């Protein structure tokens, strides 16, 4: 499976390099785009769940790295809950 890393900038200005075991993340997030926290969380959750399911279909077990990444994204997003002006920017992808 082609894995991909994607860089995001959180509302506090910090950046993080995130992981997906599948290119499906590119169907849900676009380089250069900014998303509200709820929208980003929904998109990332869908994409990483699909990616993990693809790993499970191919190898017989879900992708623990994708699920760990999703947990980190959820934790980060929780810091900005209740801030409707907060946006997460997708800096780009590294294949």
Describe this structure in words.
The protein is α+β, with helices and mostly antiparallel strands. It has one domain (4-94). 44% of the residues lie in helices and 24% in strands. The protein has 3 helices and 4 strands. The chain has helices at residues 25-28, 37-59, 64-78; strands spanning 4-9, 15-20, 34-36, 87-94. A 4-stranded antiparallel β-sheet has the order 2-1-4-3. Helix 2 (37-59) runs antiparallel to helix 3.
Brief sketch in words of this structure:
The chain has 95 residues and is α+β, with helices and mostly antiparallel strands.
- Separate helix tally: 3
Helical percentage:
40-55%
How many individual domains?
1
User: What is the number of beta strands?
Assistant: 4
The proportion of residues in beta strands is 15-25%
Secondary-structure blueprint of this entry?
Elements lengths: L3 E6 L5 E6 L4 H4 L5 E3 H23 L4 H15 L8 E8 L1
Antiparallel strand pairs: 1-2, 1-4, 3-4
Helix pairs in contact: 2-3
Question: Top keywords for this entry?
Answer:
single chain; 4-stranded antiparallel beta sheet; 4 strands; alpha+beta; 95 residues
